[in-house]
Amino acid sequence: MTASAGAAIEIRKASKRYGAFTALNDIDLHIRPGEFMTLLGPSGSGKTTTLNLIAGFTDISSGTLEIGGRSVTGLPSHKRNIGVVFQHYALFPHMTVGKNVAYPLTLRGIKGDDREKRVKRALDMVKMADFAHRYPNELSGGQQQRVALARALVFDPPLLLMDEPLGALDKKLREWLQLEIKRIHRELGTTFVYVTHDQEEALVLSDRIAVFNGGRIEQIGTGRELYDHPATLFVGRFIGDSTVLRGKSEAAGDGTVMTIGGQRIFAQGRLPGEARPVILLRPERVGLKRPGADALTGENRLSGTVTEAIYLGSGSKYEVRLADGTIAVVRSPLGATDFAIGDTADIAFLPTDLTLLPDDASADVTLT
Amino acid sequence: MNHHPTEPQETIVTDMPDRPALLKRWRPRGAVWLAAPAVLVLLLALAYPLAIVVVRSFTDPAPGLDNYVWFFQSAVNRTVLQRTFVVAAWVTLVSLICAYPYAYAMTIVGRNLRLALILCVLVPFWLSGVVRTLAWVILLQDSGVINSFLRGLGLPPVKLIRTLPGVVIGMTQVLLPFMILPIYSVMKGIDTRLLQAARSLGAKPWRAFLQIYVPLSLPGVYAGAIIVFILSLGFYITPALLGGPRSILLSSLVQNQVLSLLNWGRGGAMGVVLLVATFVLLAIAAPLMRQKHSSTRREA
């Protein structure tokens, strides 16, 4: 387990078609050496197809794919020298933990003490050294996945692919293993490509996240970029909680005015072109106030009724039904005014604390 | 992330989830009597005659080991016993060679083709063994289909009927389903994604197959081999009809002693020898079949 330089991945104009079905539609993805890149999206969005293309489990239909500066088109998976961790663990049931981890070394002609040492080091890294003589079915799911991780890393691949590796585990264990995977990534400097549909997991782990939807990449960026500046409504809704406001809109100077349930909202900025704008609000950027009270200059107000109030310890989370029926999500800090279910209240936000995005009906459909 | 969280304890499900006690405990007393008819038939039709055979092998015509002494002193008997085991071994080997790729094919083809393949395995079960064996007589005899074909190609005829190879061919065909079905049932449970995992670790496809798939299919191979071998040892009709004087198997000798010479003692002794040999074989094979990984023991 030497700290090896990770490999860069360069995917250009890649498509994957199965008959008439297009699983992946003309994607471009550049992954830097040593980066932790997460491919995030709902099922069927193309993220696993992308992983399978990199792993060599399936061939690209058109476009190019380079790993470490070398085109791998037509190169079978056993010649790519890539570690892969599967959701279903894929440990060999007839081999002990030690033999499983030694397998890729044996395939590379590494024998004797050298092999033993490397197996030991890999198992130490995932804290499974005491289990070398066990069989996989004697281990829990979390333990099996750690062994699978050791097996995928023991031959020092410059690239590790993980396909929803924690998907079958319970929440607590998943959170602990996320931190373990992050630590291992930091120690090794290997390029990690991680597939998940869990946006929180993506935010915890990744240097950058590529958000997939319908066989395309909607946006690539850090978690902060995706949360604060989503490029599409889909990304905005997929990452974190959000409230989407729709209404009749018109340009007003360098801003946009939207009428929602008879109340007028002012948003800074304008969308280019003819696209119908929607407003995306983040729960922390919205305040909940008594009707008409505590108005700030230029503040937008929409009146509604509190339908849900949840105390979170670090603050409170509310759901507010607005006049047009939209449910708005609000997160108030500790010490803010308390509201109860049934209270009438205004949601309040500044014209700059929102994101103006082109409407996209598919963003709603895909999420449900 | 400077703090080092400790590993959360994972709960391992070792038993069925809790169900209402009523449901879990619903085992009406006396359920064992449901097996009574089968047990009765087995006792009357198997255990009782078998006991008679064993007893008579030691007592008929006089008490003692005479029948066993006679059996092992006769060179013909020893040759036939040895030949019976050799034929059983050949039948097992040839069946395995035919059945393994066939069963594998059944796991990878589409649904319709798989149904057709299963049908091909099962149809022979629906035909009487005598009819099938007579079909082989027609195929194998000196002026039969195979030799006519060879003659048509200008090749010399081969002697198949009344030879050991002919017996092995006929028995293999009859017993093949007993090899294919256990192997198939194990193979269809093998997770082929393991082969993908092996390839990602650097294994060439054939190596992944030999080192991952084949070992995982062995329980089916052992089960099929034992069934075919044991059935072969006691096979009667097929070797009797396809074989000749130089390919007599033990079952024919038993038939000869009991039905032609009315010598129940000697026939019984032969049966007991075969039975004991079979048990010895099973005892040797049992540890092979015990797969470590198939243990259900789990530890946290």
Automatic annotation (TrEMBL), chain A:
The lineage of its organism: Bacteria, Pseudomonadati, Pseudomonadota, Alphaproteobacteria, Hyphomicrobiales. The keyword Membrane applies. The keyword Cell membrane applies. This is Putative spermidine/putrescine transport system ATP-binding protein. It holds the Pfam family ABC_tran. GO terms for molecular function: ABC-type putrescine transporter activity; ATP binding; ATP hydrolysis activity. Belongs to the ABC transporter superfamily. It comes from Shinella granuli. SUPFAM superfamilies: MOP-like (SSF50331), P-loop containing nucleoside triphosphate hydrolases (SSF52540). One of its GO terms (cellular component) is ATP-binding cassette (ABC) transporter complex. One of its GO terms (biological process) is quaternary ammonium group transport. InterPro entries: AAA+_ATPase, ABC_SmlMolc_Importer, ABC_transporter-like_ATP-bd, ABC_transporter-like_CS, Mo/tungstate-bd_C_term_dom, P-loop_NTPase, PotA_ATP-bd, Transp-assoc_OB_typ2. Residues 9-239 form the ABC transporter domain. Keywords: ATP-binding, Cell membrane, Membrane, Nucleotide-binding, Translocase, Transport. It comes from the Bacteria. Coiled coil: none annotated.
Automatic annotation (TrEMBL), chain B:
Coiled coil: none annotated. It is found in: Cell membrane. InterPro entries: MetI-like (IPR000515), MetI-like_sf (IPR035906). GO terms for biological process: transmembrane transport. Keywords: Cell membrane, Membrane, Transmembrane, Transmembrane helix, Transport. It is a multi-pass membrane protein. The keyword Ligase does not apply. The chain crosses the membrane at residues 31-55, 80-103, 115-140, 160-187, 208-237, 269-289. Residues 81-285 form the ABC transmembrane type-1 domain. GO terms for cellular component: plasma membrane. PROSITE patterns: ABC_TM1. Belongs to the binding-protein-dependent transport system permease family. CysTW subfamily. This is Putative spermidine/putrescine transport system permease protein.
